[in-house]
């Protein structure tokens, strides 16, 4: 639970910090490089999404190329931000999935590190087993997904995100119940 709060706080601060400030070319270049890494990772993990991700990346690259031709730093940064936002339209889903899975895995590890009464231990095994199954199912669903376009692809990723959120909530509820 603490980690979810910490991640939520981080993302909130990130949004507040960078949505209220003017973009800078330096920061946008960092985001672009990070997006390229996240893109490569998503395509490697989930090749069925390569077409949708690649199409969005191509749109973003065109915008990025336009940005590189702009001499005014403020306008250049705005255009670079536009390119980052374009790839994020799809890539953000995979970034969320990645961090939600990491959060669940951390919670499972934390939970497994606790010494519990035998009756509670059985429930822990059940909860962690279900969470692991959700992670496995999410990976399978993403790796084997079939769809005809971006809208359908995003529906698949949103469904996966929803199941991961539910798994995390179940773990958090269990942790909260054993702390009472």
Description:
It is a single chain. With 180 residues, this protein is an all-alpha fold. The chain has one domain (2-179). 86% of the residues lie in helices and 0% in strands. The chain is built from 6 helices and no strands. It starts with a helix and ends with a helix. The model has no long low-confidence stretch (mean pLDDT 90).
Q: Percent helix among the residues?
A: over 70%
**Shape descriptor:** elongated
Radius of gyration: 19 Å
Number of strands: 0
Report on the biggest sheet. Answer: none
Q: Can you count the helices?
A: 6
Distance between the termini: 15 Å
Strand-and-helix sequence, N→C? HHHHHH
Mean pLDDT: 90
- Approximately what portion of the residues adopt beta-strand conformation? under 5%
Structural class: mainly alpha
How many domains in all?
1
User: Which blocks of ≥5 consecutive residues have pLDDT under 50?
Assistant: none
What would a concise description of this structure say?
This protein has 180 residues and is mostly helical. The protein has six helices and no strands. It starts with a helix and ends with a helix.
